[in-house]
Amino acid sequence: MALFTVAAPPLHAEEAAPAAVPPADAPGDTVIVTGTAGKRSKVKASFSITTIGEETLRMQAPTSVTEALKSVPGFWVESSGGEASGNIRARGIPVDGFGSVTLLEDGVPVQHDPSLGYLNADQAFRLDETIDRIEVVRGGPSSVFYTNAPAGAINFLSREIGDHPNGLVKVTIGDYGLRRTDFWYATPLKDGWGVGIGGFYREDNGIRDPGYKADKGGQLRLKLTREIDHGRITIDAKHLDDKVALFLSVPMRTYADGEIRAVPGFDGNYGTVAGPETEHVQMKMGNGQLYDFNNDDGTHVRRNQLTFNLEKDLGGDWKLNESLRYSKTETQRNGVFANQLLSTDAFLKQSAALLSYVPGASKLALQYSSKPGTNFTPDNGLLIVGGLRGVTLPLEEAVNDTRLSRKFVLGDQSHDVTFGYYYAHFNQAFSRYSSSVLLGAQSQAPLIDLVGTDASGKVLGSVTDHGIYNYGYESENANGTSKTNAVYLADEWQLTPQLRLDGGLRWEEVNTSGRTERQANVNLGTFATSKIRTGTGVFDYYDHTFNKTGWTLGANYQLTKDAGVFGRWTKAFRLPNLSSYITSPTATPVIQTMDLGEVGYKYASRMLELYPTVFYSKYNNVSYTNNVFNLDNTQSSTTTGYASTRTWGTEIEGKLRPVEWGDLGFNITWQDPQYRDLAYTDKVNNLPVQRNYSGNQLIRVPKVSYRLVPGLNLMGDALRLQLSYEYEGARFVDSANSVRLPSYKVLNFSARYSITPTLTAYAYVDNINNSQGLTEGNPRAGELASADAGANTFLARPVLGRSVRGALKYDF
User: Fold this and answer.
1) Where is each TonB-dependent receptor plug domain found (predicted)?
2) I want to staple 709 with a disulfide (CB 3.0 to 4.6 A). Which of 298, 506, 625, 665 is the partner?
3) For 646-690, what is each residue's pLDDT tens digit?
């Protein structure tokens, strides 16, 4: 959070009035408030930072948090899962979700720990027109100013209220049933008060259509400000109630021409395994009750958030910034997971022993569950073993950040000193229940039953229960509490007009305590109910405390007012969290530490912005967990351990404006991400086998990626046309580098036309080339050494198919 401000300065009258042409994001230098003790010129910052302004956001029109970050070099982002539950890997650090970066709103964590196992921070945050801009710090001081931010901090800054009444309404439609309305209205009131209200509501069928509403809901924000003597108070309240679909792996195949596309009968651009037959299923539980699995909910988040901020000049050059956020979030996260892909012949062969569950039967067969008596003989010959997984995650949290600062002038030098105290407390519960099902390998997959027949083909009974292969292959019940205390100190020391040193350190301590219910298998008499995992009523308790100190030291030398060079070294860390224990109370996690270095050059003028950076990341004690789905016991066999990684890389970010009517934005990342010390003992036929993957490329992280954005400004800037070309280099599914994900490219188009001074139209075409580029393989086949190695047919998740949207915005 910024020390003296949490958002942009109030708009002046001429800025608040609607313009004939929507203003482009200002060229040249930019003032930033993230990762610094106060306001700082971007070109004078001693760390890497990307700024994404209002008009850039509108032209990109991202549908998710991760989509919004595609213009950040050094970040590999994956948004193929839908509007929430994305993945970010920063500067080669192989941590899923938001495990290496933190998500901030107006400088305060959206969620103290942004990666709480099935509870990523992006699930609790939605982009709408109440957001003004984004600032993204890559490495550098993020780990000193913010918690759980070793590789970066992503700060979404909300709109200011302004000096005059202002507002907008934007209506968006799309070719996948999208109907969305955003709005914002703000006005100053009497006696120094100001009020703003905004939010959105939308419905759509999903680009991958499950046969019912995929996304439905919205949020409402109320913002109050009060100017006080030498300061300001801000109160911000938000309510979110939103359902978004979780898109998962689909069946893919490598064809004779070497290209990877979906298997015959499955639409790789728009298909999803989830469908009407798995939308609502009553799953039997070991205690005799029913679990109501409702995939219409998808990831359903109900969240109330209240934020208080005080900025106060205390006199004598002392300044106080106090931020408090309370949130209560109820999350239900349902999904239809594709766990295994088999040929029907292979499945029937390996299931031969189950014939005994149907007395008198002489052979096994597959039939449609919804069409008894109709044999399942798919053209592609494939069957999916799926998982219906429901996870319930209530979270109540309070975070507080108090900062006291003063500027000291000593002769020709000055020090901007900041002292901060951070506190976070949250309670989390965790329950999970899953059942395995048989599904056809086709879009909106049907449920399939394994039946026993006599010699003539007459069905004598069913092994499965309306498509359910085994109830309760997963079951968990746990809850815990986390308390964090941190103190930090930062100093920005201006030695000469050209040279500044920035340093800081952070000490942090976390206590996690809670309990996890032991699970056991029960047998209720049928095959489908023969191995139900259920709670025993016996709990394992844990209570652990960890602490660590990290530091950063950087320098910036200003060559001219438009150009500078910088360097920085950071020792960062990430403490264990509740996810370390929530299902494994006897686990012994370690503190993860990182060594991060960067050297860069910054130049900003009206014609050219250029920010090249060389970076180094060493991640020590990164944990890996290898889960391999096993149909025999309907549970995942797990291998857990620790390794380290090392990445060298170069980032180039910038924008070229050679003429008034044209420009080119670009960000390029080259890196060499490698494992270090990744060795373990495997078992093959009950014999120990040594595995060593040191030197292999990190999973999912490409060596080369880039994004080029050429744009044209026509008709006196009333019309803007923009194309983005995104390239992702080859990656690997597993640490063994045995399954390769090929490189892919995606083209997107957007346009803006100013119809009148107050009315603006936007058009978007995403994934013009209908790429089926794979963002990930099948994690349930193992991420150490994938079980899909050598297979030409497998499960993987491609990018979302082509979609078209149009929007109309009215400013007033």
Assistant:
1) 43-153
2) 665
3) 999 999 999 999 999 999 999 999 999 999 888 877 777 778 888
Residue 136: closest CA among 121, 123, 122, 149: 149
pLDDT of 755 higher than 90: yes
Give 723-743 pLDDT, tens digit per residue: 999 999 999 998 889 999 999
Q: 128 and 168 in contact (C-beta within 8 Å)?
A: no
Write the DSSP symbol of residue 311.
E
- In the prediction, which pLDDT does 516 show? 95
- How long is the chain? 812
The two structure tokens encoding residue 286: 């070991």
Three-state DSSP at 107 gives: coil
pLDDT digits (tens, 9 = 90+) for 424-439: 999 999 999 999 999 9
Number of Cβ atoms within 10 Å of the Cβ of 377? 10
Q: What is the model's pTM?
A: 0.92
Which strand (E) or helix (H) includes residue 348? helix 344-350
Give the 3-state secondary structure of 73-95.
CCEEEECCCCCCCCEEEECCCCC
Q: Which amino acid is at 743?
A: S
Percent of the chain predicted with pLDDT > 70: 95
Question: What torsion, rounded to 10 degrees, do the Cα atoms 780, 783, 788, 790 define?
Answer: 180
CB neighbours of 454 closer than 8 A, spacing ≥ 6?
360, 361, 362, 460
For 106, how many CA atoms within 13 A lie in the half-sphere containing its CB? 28
DSSP string, 516-578: EEEEEEE--SSSTTTTEEEEEEEEEEEEEEEEEEEEEEEEEEEEETTEEEEEEEEEEEE---G
Find where tokens 């409702």 sit.
294
Tell me the C-alpha distance between 154 and 149, whole Å.
9
Q: Positive or negative CA dihedral for 676, 678, 679, 685?
A: negative
Side-chain half-sphere CA neighbours of 386 within 13 A: 33
Please tell me the distance from the alpha carbon of residue 465 to that of residue 736, in angstroms, as a whole number. Answer: 38
**DSSP-derived 3-state class of residue 580:** helix
Q: Which residues contact 426 (CB under 8 A, 6 or more apart)?
A: 112, 113, 395, 396, 397, 398, 481, 482
In eight-state DSSP terms, residue 375 is: B
Label the pairing between strands 740-741 and 744-754: unpaired
The DSSP bridge partners found for residue 367 are 375, 449
Per DSSP, the residues of 698-714 read PTT--SEEEEEEEEEEE
pLDDT tens-digit map of 447-471: 999 999 999 999 999 999 999 999 9
Residues with Cβ within 8 Å of residue 117, at least 6 apart in sequence = 430, 578, 579, 582, 583
Tell me how far apart the alpha carbons of residues 590 and 595 are, in angstroms, rounded to a whole number: 16
DSSP 579: G
User: Alpha-carbon distance 9 to 644, whole Å?
Assistant: 43
**What are the φ/ψ torsions at residue 460 (nearest 5 degrees)?**
-105, -15
Q: Which amino acid is at 239?
A: H
As a whole number of angstroms, the longest Cα–Cα distance in the chain is 100
User: CA–CA separation, 484 vs 489, rounded Å?
Assistant: 17
**Closest to 654 in 3D by CA, of 662, 664, 645:** 664
Residue 16 corresponds to which tokens in the numbers above? 């608040």
According to the model, what pLDDT value does residue 426 have?
96
The one-letter amino acid code at 466 reads H
Q: Which two tokens stand for residue 508?
A: 């942090």
* 221 Cα distance to chain centroid: 22
Distance CA 78, CA 746 (A): 13
What CA–CA distance (Å, rounded) separates 809 from 167? 10
Output the DSSP codes for 377-439: --TT-EEEEEEEEEEEEEEEEEEEEEEEEEEEEETTEEEEEEEEEEEEEEEEEEEEEEEEEEE
State the Cα–Cα distance between residues 366 and 342, nearest whole angstrom. Answer: 13
